[in-house]
Target: Lon protease
Amino acid sequence: MEQLPILPLRGVVVYPLIGVTIDVGRPLSLRALLAAKEHETDLIVVTQKETGKESPEPEDLYAIGTRVHIAKMSELSNETVRVRLVGKERVKINSIEETKEGWFADVEPLELVEGEEVERTALVRLLKEQFGKLVGSIKGLSPDERRRFEMYERLESLTDYIASKLDVDVDIRQAMLEEPDAVKRGLELLEIMTHEVEIIELEQELRERTKKTIEQAQKEYYLREQMKTIQQELGDQSQESEPNRLREKLEALDLPETTRKNVMREAERLNVVPATSPEYAVIRNYLDWIASLPWGIETEDKLDVKHAADVLDDDHYGLESVKDRILEYLAVRQLTNSLRGPILCLAGPPGVGKTSLARSIASALERHFVRVSLGGVRDEAEIRGHRRTYIGAMPGRIIRGLKQAESKNPVFLLDEIDKMASDFRGDPASAMLEVLDPEQNVSFSDHYIEEPFDLSNVLFIATANDVSQIPAPLLDRMELIQIGGYTELEKVEIAKRHLIPKQYKEHGLKKSQLTIKEDALYEVVRRYTREAGVRNLERVIGSLCRKAAKQIAIGEKKRVTVSLKSLGDYLGKPKYRYGKGETEDSIGAVTGLAYTAFGGDTLTIEVALAPGKGKLQLTGKLGDVMQESAQTAYSYVRSNAERFGIDPTFYERQDVHIHVPEGAVPKDGPSAGITIATALISALTGKKVRRDIGMTGEITLRGRVLPIGGLKEKALAAHRAGLTTIVIPKDNERDIDDIQDTVREKLTFVPVTTLDQVLEVAFGGN
Model:
């Protein structure tokens, strides 16, 4: 036994007679090199069991190592030594001792086993043959090294050489080092190399197969390019890939069987028609549209009534009737899971939230949302599409909207449905009948697509300002939900919850930078806006935000507070007078209540008498119905003149002029009948009409008062104008419950059936 310095190696196994160059940098390893150099002895190298261990212990080393000779050693610049080692013999490590100079090991040569000569000779031949097949695939071997294995005649040397060159794991290399029997080593190496040769042959086979495939593809590509060149020379630019692409997309669609047959027939035609033919583009565009529609794509409804109620309440303040109807629909869907989508029509003045309510419904259901504006649509083809024979033909807005929605059950908003018109190109409102009829829209047929498409699962929501402009057959197919205007309290609450945060965000303001006090908001609602909705209110709030942003940006103020006192500094003088009613009891002037597409309003109807021959003059841009209502009131007063204390012959000596102020604004409708009659009687009798009273109702020639529409909106207008009493037809008593509590509590409603009852309230003892 000898005691020699020991050098641990990581991931490297050194064999006898094989040279290896390594870089040594660990202190333990450097001390081993230094000890071997100073004592002029050989070195023992042994492999670590765990490659990643930086500071190994003796038990972390294998028990078999190699005695090596240091052939060359040179220092590198980074405290690393590069050393060339040449193996001598296998050694067995009996013990390791740590000294000042490093680790020293007691070693003895490993006893080797000799085998039979014939077996050894045969193994040498087989090993050389197999390694010869592998040598070309081993990286890093120089040409000289590739030929060197043929010089080895001894089995021990040959196995060590091959083991050092094969790309195998460290534990296999160590096993080869520890095996004393060269025959067993040779058989193990032979098995490893045979496996590697099989893998290489398989790789070669795959490589050849891939090469053939690539060559075939290149050949086909070359031939296609030649074909394209020939076709270009002939003026026939075929697009062979286009029909195949469309066919693949069409085959993947979930089409009804009849539709599939028709569409695939068109796809076959596309293969036959030359690409230069105009018909080719028509068929291709048609198939593109078919492939882009959501035939079988449907989103899953979130049928959670409580969640939907929370979403609707978060997005909108008020609108309880609409919310209740949507929640009823969801509740029925949740219980039956088979109800078709309803067709709702949200009717009301601008700015009350009809469009945004539809978006909230889509959000609550977790459906896709698509909006189509029908304002100004005059062409029936806008709804049903054009025939494919026309140049530039395309599907109608319904099919285009479904493509945009990417599902067959979206929330589909038909905005401004009352603004459609008709001319020589057809009636789009009539074309909408099939779309909105639950019995027919299960197989809606567009003129361009020409295949039935199921619209029964679409939740259609229409919006309108004036229901009277919607044709009766179309209105009959929709469930009408009237949305009235907002009260002052509701407008202020909407501003605080929605409008102000939205404008803060749009103008880059923080909540701490701008404060709008509640009394200022009430003043904005009363004297700077006059509307049923909140659209102008949002614009005024935006104006306040812009002015505040300017002051903050130029450094004039760090934070802005808008109060009732400072409101005029930002918005100027008020635009409207709060309380539009008369300031005092008047003769011949009565406040009427009107309902327009923009909500309720108050109209002061004036009557003036002048000497003349009984001429009746009507001014104020009155419509035919309102003019007839004025003539009816005039006739009633003439026929009952004596009963009212009026000279029966007044019409022979006096001209009567009836005027409705704001003459540039068109006015129509029968609901001003009792107002005109009261103003006439007041002017002819000289009795004053109470200033705090408003009235609405149609009058007959017998003095009967008939019901009217829009009572809720008219009540809101009366409330805004500061009136305290409203005269309404008896038949409209049922509509009082629809009016908000805050408005109903501040108004006195007087139901009447005859004009006598109206006069009793209007004159109030005057």
Q: What stands out?
A: The first strand starts at residue 2 and ends at 9. The mean pLDDT is 85. The CA atoms of residues 31 and 101 lie 6 Å apart.
